[in-house]
Amino acid sequence: LSLYPSSQDSTHVDPGTGFVGDGDPIDAIELGDSPLPMGAVVPVRLLGSLALVDEGETDHKLLVIRASDAKYSGVRSVRDLERLKPGVTARLVDWLKNYKTSDGKPANSFSQEEPTSAAEAVRVVQQVHGFYSTLVAGGVPGAPEDYFLPL
Question: Is the model's pTM score more than 0.85?
Fold first, then answer.
């Protein structure tokens, strides 16, 4: 899942990771019990986030649960999700660290392996939306004029 309009600014050094953003929309990882169809647009609750460092760039991951999930009413935080699905955070962190190693790339890292709170994740969403707004307004030096910006 990706959220628009957002952009992880490739000129801004994230103070938590020490790396610039990857220039992509922010990703949301839905942690419910069943898969979603490709391209699904669903209401979710924001639970927290992780700041992944992927090939030397910051790639924030929002952790969400969809409103139609059976556990939705009992999950307001990553801690709640962990109580209902023990080990889910550790499995996710392990997967995010290693999913590119099968392609011969190095393992990814995190600014911290413990997800942020939902309030902190909201600040990340607000920040990347601000980056996107600046990009659309032409305020990012060196951004190509034909840069694809979904509006």
Answer: yes
CA angle 48, 37, 93 (to 5 degrees): 35
E strand map for the chain? 2-3, 26-30, 44-54, 57-66, 109-110
Beta-bridge partner residues of 50: 61
Strand residue runs (E) in 31-145: 44-54, 57-66, 109-110
Q: d(Cα 2, Cα 5) in Å, to the nearest integer?
A: 9
> Do the Cβ atoms of 66 and 42 come closer than 8 Å?
yes
Q: What pLDDT was estimated at residue 129?
A: 83
The position carrying tokens 């190509």 is 144
pLDDT tens column, 55-83: 999 999 999 999 999 999 999 999 999 99
Residue 103's alpha-carbon distances to 16, 59, 60, 93, 106, in angstroms, are: 27, 18, 21, 18, 9
The CA distance from 100 to 55, in Å, is: 10
